[in-house]
């Protein structure tokens, strides 16, 4: 009997792991409010959670399309709706990363994401692709952002472009857009480590003086970029592709299928998912 009980216990553990894996798969695949609602409906079949416990979610889904910022005709109303959406979130990221992991970038779609984020009150947006295409064409992206700001009537939220952390294209002082490439990630860590080694070699520092905090301070001097609160991974590849490895230890990642033809509802849905997540910070 002990053998039978042991086999049944192992079978139960396997079913629990399959349950958890399936729920996680549903969360990754959902993109917008309807997708998220479907996720919770499916999860309610697998877990003892009543679907009626999400009234706020249903309220957001049933919201009239005329109340969306992009549907507003009046500029002041459009700005107010953007801000209202930002304030409706349980928490708004101060720094959001846009990680492109798919095909050739669409500058119009990326500019849409940047301007929508700024209009909702996000003060720092970092855009990254592992081929460095965006950094090479920084001026193209800047032009798209400015044109979209004028079109939407949100020119009050202007932007300072930082290319590779040093070359600045200043339109205004705030918010900030960082256009990043792999050189801003691992390469920055390598350069900081080399500088520390040279300082020890030149007897400017003792090896005992070198610490994590010292390396962190040195990296902040190279790239004065705050840690991202949220990174949207835009594409099918399950990898961070070297995106600011030193800065993302506490960052929440949310996956969307692509940045092409992305809608405002997709972005707002991802921000609601971020607002609902619990960050335990290692506890």
TrEMBL record:
InterPro entries: Nus1/NgBR (IPR038887), UPP_synth-like (IPR001441), UPP_synth-like_sf (IPR036424). One of its GO terms (cellular component) is endoplasmic reticulum membrane. It catalyses: n isopentenyl diphosphate + (2E,6E)-farnesyl diphosphate = a di-trans,poly-cis-polyprenyl diphosphate + n diphosphate. Keywords: Endoplasmic reticulum, Magnesium, Membrane, Transferase, Transmembrane, Transmembrane helix. It is an enzyme of class 2 (transferase). Its cofactor is Mg(2+). It comes from the Eukaryota. It is found in: Endoplasmic reticulum membrane. Its EC number is 2.5.1.87. One of its GO terms (molecular function) is ditrans,polycis-polyprenyl diphosphate synthase [(2E,6E)-farnesyl diphosphate specific] activity. Coiled coil: none annotated. Pathway: Protein modification; protein glycosylation. The keyword Transferase applies. Its main location: endoplasmic reticulum. SUPFAM superfamilies: Undecaprenyl diphosphate synthase. Belongs to the UPP synthase family. This is ditrans,polycis-polyprenyl diphosphate synthase [(2E,6E)-farnesyldiphosphate specific]. It comes from Neogobius melanostomus (round goby).
């Amino acid at each position: 009997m002990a053998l039978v009980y042991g086999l049944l216990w192992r079978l139960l553990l396997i079913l629990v792991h399959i349950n958890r894996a399936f729920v996680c798969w549903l969360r990754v695949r959902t993109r917008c409010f309807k997708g998220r609602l479907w996720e919770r409906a499916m999860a309610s079949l697998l877990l003892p959670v009543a679907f009626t416990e999400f009234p706020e979610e249903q309220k957001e889904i049933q919201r009239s399309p005329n109340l969306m910022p992009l549907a507003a005709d009046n500029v002041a109303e459009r700005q107010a709706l953007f801000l209202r959406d930002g304030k409706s979130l349980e928490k708004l990221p101060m720094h959001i990363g846009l990680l492109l992991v798919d095909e050739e970038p669409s500058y119009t779609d990326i500019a849409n994401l940047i301007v929508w984020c700024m209009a909702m009150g996000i003060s720092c947006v970092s855009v990254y692709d592992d081929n460095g295409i965006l950094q090479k064409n920084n001026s193209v992206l800047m032009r798209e952002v400015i044109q979209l700001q004028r079109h939407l009537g949100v020119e009050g939220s202007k932007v300072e472009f930082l290319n590779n952390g040093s070359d600045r294209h200043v339109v205004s002082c705030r918010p900030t857009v960082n256009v990043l490439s792999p050189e801003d990630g691992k390469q920055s860590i390598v350069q900081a480590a080399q500088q520390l080694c040279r300082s020890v070699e030149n007897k400017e520092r003792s090896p005992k003086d070198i610490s994590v905090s010292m390396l962190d301070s040195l990296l902040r001097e190279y790239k004065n970029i705050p840690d991202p609160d949220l990174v949207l991974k835009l594409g099918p590849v399950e990898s961070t592709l070297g995106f600011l490895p030193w800065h993302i230890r506490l960052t929440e990642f949310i996956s969307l299928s692509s940045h092409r033809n992305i809608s405002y509802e997709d972005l707002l849905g991802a921000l609601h998912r971020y607002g609902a997540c619990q960050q335990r910070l290692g506890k």
